[in-house]
Amino acid sequence: MYSGYKYLMGCGHLCADFYQGVLSSILPFLIAAHNFDYATAATLVMVSNIVGSVIQPVFGHIADKKEMPWSMAAGLLLAGGGMVVIGLIESFAGLCIAVMISGIGVALFHPMGALITNRSADKDHQAASMSVFSFGGTVGFTLGPIAATAAISLWGLKGTLILILPAVIEVVFLIMKNRGIAELCSMKAEELPSAPAIGNEPAADDWRGFFVLCSVIFGRSIVFYAFNTFVALYWIESLGQTEVIGNTALTIFYATNALSTLAGGSLADRYGHKRIILISCIAIAPFVFLVPAVAHPVLSVLMLVPVGLGLGFCHSPLVTSGQNLLPNHQGLASGVTLGLSVSIGGIFAPLLGMVGNMFGLGATFIVTGIIATATLAAALFIPDKK
To answer: What's the mean pLDDT when you consider all of the chain?
Structure first.
């Protein structure tokens, strides 16, 4: 009855992360229009990410206590509204307020969207449903820069107004399905499609296991942001390739990550969440070291493929495992696994950049490989929660 809701939530996730992708592509236009320096422009991204990521667990905790079916529509309107007015604002303070509003909107959508995705899935396909949700976010993050660049190229900075359309369309569908969403919010645990067999004792929260899982999620986030930030630069500055080749390498990494995100959930449902997480971490760690070790454009690209696959395969199982470890606080678990993971990776990226400044970008990947190895070690201790 509720199986189709994962696609509705996936489209909502696409819209939410669409606006996160829009911001990065608008920065060059803002720099040209307002004569910002790079640090000032980057502050806008930092404000959006930190505000959204830190507040997301708070919204998740509230979602566990109160039924909030309206929060997803409100979140998307805030995410879209805050972002699209950027083209009309002249002051830097106004721009900061706008991106804060957008970041809060994204944070408002994520916990409830992930919670409804989990609640609507049957017990044998929870990770597969979460992979649809995660894949939607990946697609949205990819489409945002394309749409923003096209709109601004056609109509100037005021063209950002047209970018409100994805949020409006998704909100219409959310309103149409509001009754079903409200039913899922109000259901008791034993009434959900994912409920265990009759006679099983109510599940207890495993906070210790959740903290272990978080260490793996944060390690994965650091590795992802390291590659997201430094792959193109490494190909250009260390391997002597053109900007086109550098961006092509980054596109290959994005593509393998996106496709494996969609497949990872189904594999986890079939073979077990912990097993897929472990296999993913085993695939990631050695190949991170090999990227700078081979020091050849083509061979290094080949090293990106298993890293991208591993990072994608484990994403949905990690989020779903967090919800399963905290069955009585699934909104909070969703907020932490989807929110703080963003801020942790973003915080470490500049630190890895400092390593690159001092010792070269090859050293950055070596440090990232050490972090990936520590993440693999932590994954061994994740509880095998059914």
So the answer is: 85
197: in domain: no
Is 357 exposed, middle or buried (CB count within 10 Å of its CB: 0-12, 13-18, 19+)?
exposed
pLDDT tens for 97-154 read 999 999 899 888 988 888 888 888 776 777 788 888 888 888 887 788 788 888 988 9
d(CA 366, CA 353): 12
Tens-digit pLDDT profile for residues 188-220:
665 565 555 444 555 788 999 999 999 999 999
- Cα of 305 vs its chain's centroid, Å: 19
Q: Is 109 contained in some domain? A: yes
- Could you tell me how many residues make up the chain? 386
Q: How would you label 368-383 residue by residue, b for 16+ Cβ within 10 Å and e otherwise?
A: bbebbbbbbebbeebb
Range of the domain at 123: 5-191
Alpha-carbon distance values, 172 to 70, 233, 244, 264 (Å): 12, 41, 39, 30
Q: Is the dihedral of CA 56, 61, 62, 68 positive or negative?
A: positive
| Residue labelled with tokens 């193109």 | 232
DSSP state, residue 189: G
Burial bucket for residue 49 (CB in 10 Å: 0-12, 13-18, 19+) = buried
Q: Are 140 and 235 contained in the same domain?
A: no
pLDDT at residue 202, rounded to an integer: 54
Burial grade of 84 (CB within 10 A; 0-12, 13-18, 19 or more): buried
Give 28's pLDDT tier (boundaries 50, 70, 90).
confident
Is 318 part of any domain? yes
How far apart CA 126 and CA 310 sit, in angstroms, is 19
Q: Are residues 40 and 111 in the same domain?
A: yes
Alpha-carbon span 151 to 80, nearest angstrom: 15
State whether the Cα torsion 54-17-225-146 is positive or negative.
negative
